[in-house]
Specification:
With about 200 residues, this protein is mainly alpha-helical. Helix 2 packs antiparallel against helix 5 and helix 4 packs across helix 6. The chain is globular and about 45 Å long. One of its GO terms (molecular function) is peptidase activity. It comes from Paenibacillus brasilensis. This is Membrane protease YdiL (CAAX protease family).
Length: about 200
Amino acid sequence: MKKLKVKWKRAQIHELNDRLLLYNLYLTQGLTLLVGAIWIIFQKRNVLNLFALPNSLHVLWWGLGLAAAILLVDLVLSRIMPENAMDDGGINQLLFQNRPIWHIICIAAVVSICEEFLFRGAIQYSFGPYWTSILFAVIHIRYLRHWIPTGWVFLSSYGLGYIYVQTGSLWAPIICHFVIDLISGLALRFRRYEE
């Protein structure tokens, strides 16, 4: 019987095509959702209860308010910091620059639901917002080469954890995360790149 040899190597940005990038995105988000569900089941909690719809609009206001604050600070940082200090290696640009608007909305929804389900819904329940935010910053590995975006991801994550605690609803951080990813994705989609 012939042995199957699997080679793992880190792909460079120029090696990624659109199909591979999307495959990687949706695979990692599916794994995030699965790990979150398993983690919550081991906590002896009901997965569906986390997605219960809130009975007031304060959850929406918390989510939109934090999203506006994060986007504003992000805009200021992008204006005062050199572009290479905020560089993610070109992944976000590659992901969004040629994407149809409906697909940007879909990506923002999938990422916000899956990541908030795992990080706020499962991990934060066990470790609190501080350690959850450290882990959240670490898994956004493409930012780790620069301390400013890494610190900003940590602070943003801590804010998401904070509004989850304040509202008691997973929908507040999901809404916030969705709006941030949607606006950022649309900005990259319609940004004019110098040739």
